[in-house]
Amino acid sequence: MVVSSSKERAPTLRRALATVGSTVGLTLTFSDIELSERKESEPQSLASAAGGAPADPGMGAYRARLYLVGPDSPGLVHRVALLLASHALNITSMDTRVYAGNEEELVDVAGESGARSPSMRSASDVFDMSAVVASSAVPDVPRIEEAMAALQKELGVSIELEWIVAASDLKNSAAEA
């Protein structure tokens, strides 16, 4: 999530968010994003290239759509979010769904069986995630694609990253930098 504040108010905001996060079991990671004007050599966002409004620099001028589909298991969103964060990509919007598999295969995470609850999983449950990710820095597309391929193989899921700005434009910008 991108949250903006003045530099003076940032420490107070961080403390408040960390306090709230800890009460609900969230671990929060903070990083500063400096807003700057896009260089002429950098690719435009899809909207600005089409004559629309320029990308909001606070949300990142470089955007991609991420799609993940595969067997449901604990920690999928966490693992993907860690990978994205390690490449300076922020999730700006996300939708997840679990499509129920075979009810006869249900096993409670605690090992009990019975009526379906949020903690119950079936080996045939399918997890579906779609997200928009963004970065204010030029993404290193080859490294991101390599990391996504490794995570995809490790988790046994399908992950697609569809750049809103052509990946070839990003690769060219990175080479020029």
TrEMBL record:
PROSITE patterns: ACT (PS51671)
Residues spanning the membrane: none
Entry-linked Gene3D superfamilies: 3.30.70.260
Domain ACT: 65-166
PANTHER family documented for this protein: UPF0237 PROTEIN MJ1558
UniProt-recorded name of the protein: ACT domain-containing protein
Organism: Octactis speculum
Species lineage: Eukaryota, Sar, Stramenopiles, Ochrophyta, Dictyochophyceae
